[in-house]
Amino acid sequence: MARRLNPILPLSGLTEHRGGAAVSRSKRMGSARSGRGGGGGAGKLTPAEEELLHRQALAMAIHQHLDAGGSMSRRIDAGGSMSRRIGPGSTSSRRRGDLPDSVTGAKAVQIVLENLETKKIVLVHGEGFGAWCWYKTISLLEEAGLDPIALDLTGSGIDNADTNSIATLADYSKPLIDYLNKLPENEKVILVGHSCGGASVSYALEQCPQKISKAVFLTATMVKDGQRPFDVFSEELASADVFLQESQLLIYGNGKDKPPTGLMFDKQQIKGLYFNTSPSKDTVLAAVSMRPIPLAPIMEKLSLTPENYGTVPRYFIQTLDDRMLSPDVQEKLVRENPPDGIFKIKGGDHCPFFSKPQSLNKILLEIAQIQAPTTLLPSKAQTEAIEVTEGKTEEVKTEKSS
Asked: Model-level pTM greater than 0.90?
């Protein structure tokens, strides 16, 4: 396992992107250097190449296809800044190197749409991200015939709320809860939460369990009752008290004499912690699009009950090259709060929607097709863990506490 970078380092600002102005599109780079980037073996880019990547990332980040509710449109047309949609195995609109993935060339997942409980998949971003980060996942899920939608949580993406004003997890998760409450009476969705977005998914399970068919935690903070999302990281960062006293990542939006309101990693920390195997252009996209992380939601203890939270099947997707939420911490999460299924992505960093999009897509399609059990599975002695590796899928058995 790669060593984690120490996040308690001096803070330097990130350029914030609000997605308002038009940005001219540039030609795709023809060199191999534009294909796979972000990994340790990538060569150093020239200033001209860095500028081109930056312009490409800005073009991707323009939210021309966002509706009035702050969600990313499911339709990405050829005239938009995200180029044409592609499916597994297609190379018509992107070079294969642009989508480095552990299942490239693998047999596509066969999906029978009429057997699905729901086709609607709601994608919930993690800390600092927005709906923009799911652009590859949206394209691949659409190609399979599903109905994905990505939401901006409060103060994220192009939501214009001030990050420093977010005081509770309820405030932060309001766009998700509002969306679920507006669904037709008998309609359900599959929720997918990334990183600290797992807290918003857990909160939604408690608030609207009747609207959720399945919950998927993508290397996410799958907390227990009475636990804070920050507690998941506390062993590697420090205790909350120490972190709040010593961290130079903190933002004091209401003044130094008031409690901190947010935090932000600098550009190099983000690259090392989140994107160690992601393509360079996605790293640049994140660098210009990520916003400060509201602190209150990740410091709040969740109240989760068996009657609500406990009635919805949960699945956890582990990423085995993750430096932000290490494989050891992920294993601890599934041990202490056992889900109904475990999936693993080899070679995936903390953001597999960038680093391993087709592996992630394959797993989401498999989860979508899992039939609802007559009873939930927490008492089962074992659960299947599907490990996605190069060109094949292997089933392994993982012991699960009763």
From this structure: no
